[in-house]
Design brief:
The chain is of the alpha/beta class. The chain has 3 domains: 73 residues, Roll (Ubiquitin-like (UB roll)); 83 residues; 78 residues, no CATH class. The protein is 24% helix and 17% strand. The chain is built from 8 helices and 12 strands. The strands form 3 sheets. A 5-stranded mixed sheet has the order 2-1-5-3-4, covered by helices on one side. Strands 7-6-8-9 form a 4-stranded parallel sheet, sandwiched between helices. Strands 10-11-12 form a 3-stranded antiparallel sheet. Helix 4 links the parallel strand 8 and strand 9. The longest helix has 14 residues. The N and C termini lie far apart (93 Å).
């Protein structure tokens, strides 16, 4: 006699309780901010999957605790798990805990999306290697971030959810100068800044040149008024310490507060 088929009960639904802290609440629906809430989870859902499904890019997250234990993005969620999600810590050091990224980037380099052209120019002014093209598609930014170990800068949270982007900043400010202050504070960039060492136009390095070499590109009034010049190694533009330089210097002083290290032991360059 044939035996009837064995009936297998469907897996029980998995629910987890989440609590997001500080500025991570900006990404959540209003009724979920600053409080615990329980949500159903997809079968075999990881912490990364659920955090991003709730609207928070993984690049904004510094620490995840599940039932009080520090875990990575690949932790599978179980029914009843309690998940606490934190941004970068300011008040205390969490380095003894398990971090979510394998290691910090060896050098601070950026790639900015199409909406952050002004910020890209200011970061170059501060001496940071920053790629920008308003024609970059999301997949190209992801490729550059992964292959060249760059920090992605964007106001598009969906871009930061891409798997190939391990380091990124969601820029909240709307005004360019405030965006610069925000990124400097978030990434503690002040002591790494080397103002006026990089071309604002093409991102290549600047080098000091003699006035004689600069003369063919100088307006007569500039040639008469200035003695120090630098040139871009990429596009060959010539820079000098004119009115534009003085306006930028004011912003630099305001953002850095004297924390920057001069590029070559003294203040040298540019326009």
């Amino acid at each position: 006699m044939d035996r009837p088929p064995t009936l297998v009960a469907p897996p029980a639904a998995v629910h987890a309780t989440f609590r997001f802290y500080e500025e991570l609440n900006d990404f959540l629906a209003g009724e979920r901010r600053q409080r615990e809430f329980s949500v159903p989870c997809a079968r075999a859902a990881t912490t990364k999957h659920m955090i991003e499904a709730l609207g928070v890019p993984h690049t904004e997250v510094e620490l995840i605790l599940v039932n009080g234990e520090s875990v990575g993005f690949d932790r599978l969620l179980a029914d009843g798990d309690r998940v606490a999600v934190y941004p970068t810590f300011e008040a205390f050091d969490v380095t003894p805990l398990l971090r979510l990224r394998a290691q910090p980037l060896r050098s601070t380099r950026f790639v900015a999306d199409a909406h952050l052209g002004g910020l890209a120019h200011l970061l170059r002014m501060m001496g940071f290697d920053t790629l920008y093209d308003n024609a970059y598609a999301d997949h190209e930014i992801e490729r550059l971030a992964a292959s060249e170990h760059r920090i992605a800068l964007t106001r598009d949270r969906e871009l930061l959810k891409r798997r190939g982007i391990t380091h990124g900043v969601y820029v909240r400010a709307l005004r360019t100068t405030e965006q610069l202050r925000e990124v400097f504070a978030r990434l503690h960039l002040a002591r790494s800044a080397r103002p006026f060492t990089r071309c604002l136009h093409c991102n290549a390095m600047l080098v000091a040149i003699d006035k004689a070499r600069a003369l063919p590109q100088l307006p007569p009034r500039v040639a008469a008024a200035f003695e120090r010049f630098s040139a871009c190694e990429g596009c060959a533009r010539v820079f000098w310490e004119g009115s534009h330089w003085r306006r930028m210097q004011g912003l630099i002083d305001d953002v850095l507060g004297g924390a920057a290290v001069p590029p070559h032991g003294d203040e040298e360059w540019s326009r």
